[in-house]
Write a structure and sequence with these properties.
13 helices, globular, Peptidase S41, six-stranded mixed sheet, signal, ClpP/crotonase-like_dom_sf, serine-type peptidase activity, alpha+beta, 480 residues, Tail-specific_protease
Length: 480
């Protein structure tokens, strides 16, 4: 059953990128026209919010883009324009050519501490009797950073880095002494404000989306901090038997390319899962992917038939190119190619219409086996869950075994199946959606998100979420 289309190709050829500056008005007009004519959610939101509000929004945007000459500023304003329709399920990405032009034109230089001595700093650390602050040596995604307090602030100084542009002694970030804000230096050494600093346990430090793990001084930290670091840095799914009553699994992505890794992990853990009363599935930072990647998880949750509402696709000449592309993909088998070819022909005959290519409005999952274990399943969710992950959540909510923990999801599911279009100037890619769920308007998810059964408030730090979920599952098991 085709429910989510395979990874897609850009629909325009990339043109030459001449300079770091851009014609933002021209880019805005192209994005506006492309979105109005092709996005599956455009007409629905326009009807909801009204033409007058839309025209006012367009007028304000036009005044802003006429004054913008820098690409980064332009893309931010284009994002603000699309947010009239939804907060997510669209994307603007600079092309490699544009990034190269920006880097060539950039004149930022690293802030370097030539006096810093790693050896002296390690000797200094060895003399500290207690760990009272964040001074130490930390690692992040293959790079190491020394954090030293100097002149009332903490400086993160590069010791080694994966990126060749970074050299030993370059300042990676500066954090204020109160650990509430600071400054990071990006790959082009441009400064960026850090809005949120979090110290989790004694071994994990998070600066917005940058996460570090303490290497020196060594600490025997709690399992929660270690798990949280793995969750935030994992590039593949992982799992293990956490204790005598709980199996823990983290799914980092439902991308089609990740299906094999998910299936392999579940196969390796199968006997453990079906002989253990509790299962925790951690979906933090799992942003979406393909429905086929969730198939092997469903049997562990299943207690009764599960219904999934289908989607319909918007037919336009631009959108329909993707079906032709898919029918010619070398990695698709003959049956898939024929299926996509038939869809392409159908869509061409229905230009300007929404088309249900599935032949039914609802798909129902019926399984023969209901596992005795796990008896209780806790699924951890938060605001960085979108798209297919939310589809999985809607399906899992129908199980009598499942409870959800965390915060509400991001809300990007009503319109979906993003495809790419490259701007005429060749400096960015715009992704929009070509399908609309048959759930709307009765059961919307976009912008509202899906709420957990157990809201984990700010007094429960994220490195304690798994512990808290495990505790509640054990209470539930004892109650039965």
């Amino acid at each position: 059953m085709l429910k989510k289309i395979l990874p897609l190709f850009p629909l325009f050829l990339i043109t030459n990128v001449q300079a770091q500056t851009c014609n933002c008005k021209e880019s805005y007009q192209w994005v506006k026209k492309t979105f109005e004519e092709n996005d599956a959610g455009y007409a629905y939101i326009l009807k909801t919010k009204g033409q007058q509000a839309y025209e006012l929004h367009n007028g304000l945007t036009l005044k802003k883009v006429e004054k913008i000459t820098q690409l980064d500023d332009c893309l931010e304003e284009l994002k603000n324009w699309v947010r009239f329709f939804r907060t997510d399920h669209f994307r603007f990405t600079k092309t490699k050519e544009a990034i190269s032009v920006q880097e060539a034109a950039g004149n930022s230089k690293p802030v370097r501490d030539s006096q810093f001595s790693p050896e002296e700093f390690k000797k200094y650390l060895s003399g500290k009797k207690t760990i009272e602050d964040i001074e130490g040596i930390w690692e992040t995604r293959g790079s190491t950073v020394a954090i030293k307090k100097h002149d009332g602030e903490y400086r993160g100084i590069t010791l080694s880095a994966v990126a060749p542009a970074w050299k030993a002694g370059d300042t990676k970030f500066v954090i204020k002494a109160d650990l509430k804000s600071g400054t990071r230096y990006l790959s082009n050494f441009q400064p960026k404000q850090v809005d949120k600093v979090r110290v989790l346990g004694k071994s994990v430090l998070q600066l917005d989306d940058l996460i570090l793990k303490r290497v020196l001084p060594g600490v025997a930290d709690d399992k929660g901090a270690e798990e949280y670091y793995l969750v935030k840095t994992a590039t593949s799914p992982f799992g293990y038997k956490r204790d005598s009553s709980t199996v823990y699994v983290h799914i980092n992505s439902f991308n089609y390319e990740n299906k094999k890794a998910i299936d392999s992990l579940l196969k390796a853990l199968h006997n453990t899962i079906v002989s253990t009363p509790n299962l925790i599935i951690d979906l933090r930072d799992c942003q979406g992917g393909s429905d086929v990647s969730m198939e092997k998880i469903i049997p562990y949750l299943y207690t009764n038939p599960m219904r999934s509402v289908m989607a319909e696709f918007y037919s336009t000449p631009l959108n329909n190119r993707i079906w032709e592309e898919l029918s010619k993909r070398a990695d698709a088998d003959k049956e898939e190619q024929e299926t996509y070819g038939k869809i392409a022909s159908l869509m061409k005959s229905k230009v300007g219409q929404f088309v249900n290519i599935f032949g039914k409005d609802v798909e129902e999952t019926n399984l023969d086996t209901i596992y005795e274990n796990p008896r209780s399943v806790g699924i951890i969710i938060h605001e960085n869950n979108f798209s297919t992950t939310e589809e999985f959540i809607l399906k899992a909510k129908q199980s009598k075994k499942v409870k959800f923990f965390g915060r509400k999801t991001g809300g990007a599911l009503d319109v979906s199946n993003m495809i790419e279009a490259v701007a005429p100037q060749g400096n960015f890619v715009f992704e929009y959606c070509i399908s609309r769920s048959l759930r709307i308007p009765e059961f919307p998810v976009d912008d509202m998100g899906i709420h957990p059964d157990f809201y984990l408030d700010k007094s429960i730090p994220e490195n304690e979420w798994v512990n808290y979920t495990s505790k509640i599952l054990n209470y539930s098991r004892r109650a039965h």
